[in-house]
Amino acid sequence: MVDAGKAYIITNKQFVGGVRDLSQQCKKDEMISECLDKFGDSLQEMVNYHMILFDQAQRSVRQQLNNFVKEDVRKFKETKKQFDKVREDMEIALVKNAQAPRHKPHEVEEATGTLTITRKCFRHLALDYVLQINVLQAKKKFEILDAMLSFMHAQYTFFQQGYSLLHELDPYMKKLATELDQLVIDSAVEKREMEHKHALIQQRTLLQ
């Protein structure tokens, strides 16, 4: 999404650049030049707002969740590996203890001692493992919701800024729309007058 956003911003910057180039070429026509300058400035502001939005997306969603995965999930996986290893050790110790020949007290004592130590280690690590699961679940919930909330706040700000910008531009847009309507009417009248003059000239030419 972030990469697509960057591409979108680049395209919009190019479009704004095109609008401003066109404005320079139309300097002799004040109406066109003024319109392109105003709209070009507003579009540039929108590009700036987009840049802020995508930067927020980069920081709040991508980086925050990536850090969560890289740090917290990685630590959890390491603990799980240790837990699995100790569990295997305890299973081996249980088997050895069960298979220890009872007529050999020394081997029985050694197997029992190993089992006791391994069992204590397993219980201790199991508690840590369960704790990490609970902590990870709670943190996952917080990280995901916090990242999305931050991003939605950024969206809210983006659309508010866009609305404010266009709201300020609205009177000019309405004025321009009225002028364009009048321009269409004037052009139609001028066209009819020219057609009428053209017809008169043709009639005179035929009569001569």
TrEMBL record:
Organism of derivation: Python bivittatus
Function: GTPase-activating protein for the ADP ribosylation factor family.
PANTHER family: ARF-GAP WITH COILED-COIL, ANK REPEAT AND PH DOMAIN-CONTAINING PROTEIN 3, CENTAURIN/ARF
InterPro entries given in the database record: ACAP1/2/3-like, AH/BAR_dom_sf, BAR_dom
Keywords associated with the record: ANK repeat, Endosome, GTPase activation, Metal-binding, Repeat, Zinc, Zinc-finger
Annotated membrane topology: Peripheral membrane protein
Every BAR domain range: 1-194
Pfam families to which the protein is assigned, alphabetical: BAR_3
UniProt subcellular location: Endosome membrane
Protein activity control: GAP activity stimulated by phosphatidylinositol 4,5-bisphosphate (PIP2) and phosphatidic acid.
GO MF annotations in UniProt: GTPase activator activity; zinc ion binding
Domain notes: The BAR domain mediates homodimerization, it can neither bind membrane nor impart curvature, but instead requires the neighboring PH domain to achieve these functions. PH domain binds phospholipids including phosphatidic acid, phosphatidylinositol 3-phosphate, phosphatidylinositol 3,5-bisphosphate (PIP2) and phosphatidylinositol 3,4,5-trisphosphate (PIP3). May mediate protein binding to PIP2 or PIP3 containing membranes.
Protein name: Arf-GAP with coiled-coil, ANK repeat and PH domain-containing protein
GO cellular component terms given for this protein: endosome membrane
